[in-house]
Amino acid sequence: MADRLVYADNAATTSTSPAVLEAMMPYFGEVYGNPSSLHQKGRAAKAAITEAREKIAALLGAKPNEIYFTASGSEADNWAIKGAAHAMQHRGKHIISTKIEHHAVLHALESLEKEGFEVTYLDTDEVGRVTPEAVASAMREDTILVEIMFANNEIGTIEPIREITAAVKAKNPKTLVFTDAVQAVGAVDINVTELGVDMLAMSGHKIHAPKGIGALYIRNGVRILNLIDGGGQERSRRGGTENVAYIVGFAKALEDAVFGISEGTRVEKMRDRLIDEILKIPSTRLNGPREGRLPGNVNVSFEFIEGESLLLLLDMAGICASTGSACSSASLEPSHVLLTIGVPVEQAHGSLRLSIGRDTTDEDVDYILEKLPAIVERLRMMSPLYNA
Ligand SMILES: *Cc1c(COP(=O)(O)O)cnc(C)c1O
């Protein structure tokens, strides 16, 4: 049995915080009305949604009627990409994105390609960064949409979204800019008005709300097809009786996350200690940048090691982490993100992502640093490549 349990997979999901759970509880209980009902039970539920929407809008510099609740970050990504592409296709069928996006974006784009849309997938530099110049020079007369993620879920790279948006708008103000900000929201300062983006996707379970709630910011005036026809909810753009408790929980989680951004330096210090110490292990490389990196993200590759074996031994030691091949573990394909930034295939196979967060303590970091080097050493001793 492990002496301790350390959860270092916050980029995959986070715990629902007690404060969020507490904020949600009344909406599983006495406040059960349908927000569309005119009586007091309905009005109470409706008021909770209105308050949540206003809170989220204020935290992001948006207007309340620009916030649309969805069932996940993936839904928000799909809606933004397909909804905007379909609404704009009379103007052109070209879309620009990157090779390091989340699968909710990449697969939505692939489905548009099957319909005849054309997508340019931009390369990044060796730390995963996309430049405004690269985006602007990929633009064509028929470019209707640019989608660049705000921060990468695997290697933590934060993209210059404000500069990218400015470059796109300077070239063609009608080209829409959408950013998947699922990893960035609550980790970096975000003001949609200052950024100038047209759409921005978020997800609850990455910021200590439950799984199954997300949101899409859609700037007023942006043309996008409705997602679900129904009873007029979400300004008739996404029908279906609202998930009141989860909406309330999401607003509470976002508020706590945004107010906690300044405390991110504590998480950053732990991240940097992990990186510095892990890089002392021989034949180890850091994936992603030193600067401009998500506060909780550590991604490293160990030569001569399989990520899966590493995860297994870490798990036995009580450490929950992730590897670059975990997402597609059925295929054992190395991460598309690591390959894009030029990590050799063997090293991509030996990658480890530790994503810490506000629940992480210095003792957790000590524990990881106590266990990890010995596990790497043990695996290398068993590796024929290493012994050669
Ligand atoms: C987690 C994640 C998503 C998907 O969000 P879900 O709510 O799990 O569907 C999309 N994009 C990024 C960058 C993510 O990290």
Overview of the structural elements:
There is one protein chain. This protein has 388 residues and is α/β, with parallel strands linked by helices. The chain is built from 14 helices and twelve strands. The protein has helices spanning 18-24, 40-60, 73-88, 103-114, 132-138, 161-171, 192-195, 244-259, 264-278, 307-316, 336-340, 345-349, 362-381, 384-387, and strands spanning 6-7, 67-70, 94-98, 118-122, 143-147, 176-180, 199-203, 214-218, 284-286, 297-302, 319-320, 351-355. The strands form three sheets. Strands 2-8-7-6-5-3-4 form a seven-stranded mixed β-sheet, with helices on both faces. Strands 9-10-12 form a three-stranded antiparallel β-sheet. Strand 6 (176-180), helix 7 and strand 7 (199-203) form a beta-alpha-beta unit. The longest helix has 21 residues, at 40-60. It is globular and about 70 Å long. The two termini are 33 Å apart. The mean pLDDT is 96. It binds pyridoxal-5'-phosphate. The site of pyridoxal-5'-phosphate has 15 residues, from helix 3.
